[in-house]
Design a protein that fits this description.
Strand order of the largest sheet: 1-3-2-6-5-4
CATH superfamily of the largest domain: Ribosomal Protein L25, Chain P
CATH topology of the largest domain: Ribosomal Protein L25, Chain P
Structural class: alpha+beta
CATH architecture of the largest domain: Beta Barrel
Distance between the termini: 87 Å
CATH class of the largest domain: Mainly Beta
Radius of gyration: 29 Å
Strand content: 35-45%
Number of domains: 2
Number of helices: 4
Length: about 210
């Protein structure tokens, strides 16, 4: 994975007021923390940050923050995004090292048309991401599993997933189900209008017959 550079500046003022003023000036308030250094309160360029998120690795993208002449490797730990405009309001960066592994949640994608679906069943992907432990420059953009051989009532577990890169370690319980093939649920037929009333009328009519008559 190629790292992307993001210009950053140290900021001295904290709080909602100064953060709001920074956003009005076209900057995003942020914080950098993690092993190998002190927590730093910074601002970053919104264009560069947004560009890093459009790549295939999204939040797992390896970044190089340029702060006051120094360069520090980091990944995005958290983003505060406006619920309506989707504008980034704050960013948390986590300091990383190319020599140390860390935990990343990588998108999981199923490919192929399963045997169960061909027979009229359904395929359920139970998880959208898979946790892996790896160095920040080796994080895969996604993990792809072929489900063509998954029949109805069959499943794919974490233990069935094979990663080509031997430096990537799966960090999930190997017995956990990731994909299952199921029979398609058939909706119960609703009774035709008037049917319940007609059915209820039969016992009532039988009860109304005079005793001794058949």
């Amino acid at each position: 994975m190629e790292k992307q550079t993001i210009p950053a500046e140290v900021r001295t003022l904290r709080g909602k007021g100064p953060a709001r003023q920074l956003r009005m000036k076209g900057k995003i308030p942020a914080v950098l923390y993690g092993p190998g250094g002190e927590t730093e309160v910074i601002t970053v360029d919104p264009v560069a940050l947004s560009k890093s998120l459009t790549g295939p690795h999204h939040k797992n993208q390896l970044l190089e923050l340029e702060i006051g002449g120094s360069k520090q490797l980091a990944t995005i730990k958290d983003l505060d995004v406006h619920p309506v405009t989707r504008v980034i309001r704050h960013a948390d960066f986590y300091r990383v090292s190319l020599e140390a592994t860390a935990l990343y949640h990588v998108p999981l994608r199923a490919t192929g048309r399963s045997k169960g679906v061909v027979k009229g069943g359904e395929l359920r992907v139970l998880f959208r991401t898979l946790p892996v432990r790896v160095t920040p420059d080796k994080v895969p953009a996604e993990i792809v599993i072929n489900v063509e051989n998954v029949d109805m009532l069959e499943s794919v577990r974490v233990s069935d997933i094979k990663l080509e890169d031997g430096e990537i370690e799966l960090a999930a319980d190997r017995a956990v189900l990731m994909v299952t093939g199921e029979r398609k649920k058939v909706a119960e037929e609703e009774p035709a209008p008037g049917a319940p009333a007609a059915a209820a009328a039969k016992p009532a009519a039988a009860a109304a017959k005079p005793a001794g008559k058949k």
